[in-house]
């Protein structure tokens, strides 16, 4: 673990990581890298699975409870000899022999994580504890997909990883924000106390094909509204900003983080910053110039600004996003039109 870069303080574990299964070192045991993806039937998870499956040396096991994910996202892999899909809730224990764990299981959209906030907290806390217990038992490296929400309504802009955040602990979003903060704490405690090899990605808004169409996230909202000829609803004041990372860039960043030597946390996101009004205007121009843009009330605790500082990802992982918003929107439009069965007007 000595070569692990951590982020200040006494975060480096003094313990050696747990031993992987002895079979891994056996002379005649030919094994692929066995990779567990929790939440692999979801939006980012299914794209991650696609990428991992491209490597013939990988065997991929997905566990998902299908709360917000769908088997449809993985249909091209079902039946493949290097792929397994298990219906499982991460709040229950799981025993599988794996080398790496990408722990994504958690609803990411406010509509879904607020639907059952107690369950969201359980998924973040008990689910992460279970996956860390598994990592400890089988000697696997584990990556947590944390979130920019750990910065809350940030008082520092753009957000660097050493910023501790400005989070409301008792608000309607806290089940997600605080849940992820505890999940990060658990990751570092297992790392320091048990020598588990950990990786933490702080993901900023990500978009692309396979997002749930009516999940209330702003890019999917605007694109679905433009396709359906409905007004684009900008939450007031409209000057709040977000940055949007295309999903293939995100997957590339997650794999680099897993394969590299840095525990993180590392921000992965696109620093291109847009106000919600600008985003609505771009979607209108590109998809349906005839739709109206209207304003609606905002939801509580909506952060005013979000923009990652990605210096660390750049320097430590050699990563930067490649896909510009204007190139990503048409790819998502195509996927949404197919699923909504609304072809482009001639
Ligand atoms: N999409 C983003 O912009 C974004 C931003 C920040 C962080 N993240 C994080 O990335 C991860 C993936 O996000 P996503 O956008 O793909 O979300 P998603 O909702 O599409 O995927 C989450 C998956 O986890 C599954 N899941 C939820 N609870 C579970 C449980 N208890 N047991 C087993 N499976 C469970 C869902 O069914 C779904 O397939 C999440 O951890 C999320 O917090 C996403």
TrEMBL record:
It is an enzyme of class 4 (lyase). Residues 36-331 form the NAD(P)-binding domain. Pathway: Nucleotide-sugar biosynthesis; UDP-alpha-D-xylose biosynthesis; UDP-alpha-D-xylose from UDP-alpha-D-glucuronate: step 1/1. Its cofactor is NAD(+). Residues 1-23 are annotated as: Disordered. Residues 1-13 have a biased composition (Polar residues). The keyword Transferase does not apply. It is found in: Cytoplasm. Keywords: Cytoplasm, Decarboxylase, Lyase, NAD. One of its GO terms (molecular function) is UDP-glucuronate decarboxylase activity. One of its GO terms (cellular component) is cytoplasm. It holds the Pfam family GDP_Man_Dehyd. The keyword Zinc-finger does not apply. It catalyses: UDP-alpha-D-glucuronate + H(+) = UDP-alpha-D-xylose + CO2. InterPro entries: NAD(P)-bd_dom (IPR016040), NAD(P)-bd_dom_sf (IPR036291), UXS-like (IPR044516). Its EC number is 4.1.1.35. Belongs to the NAD(P)-dependent epimerase/dehydratase family. UDP-glucuronic acid decarboxylase subfamily. Catalyzes the NAD-dependent decarboxylation of UDP-glucuronic acid to UDP-xylose. Necessary for the biosynthesis of the core tetrasaccharide in glycosaminoglycan biosynthesis. This is UDP-glucuronate decarboxylase.
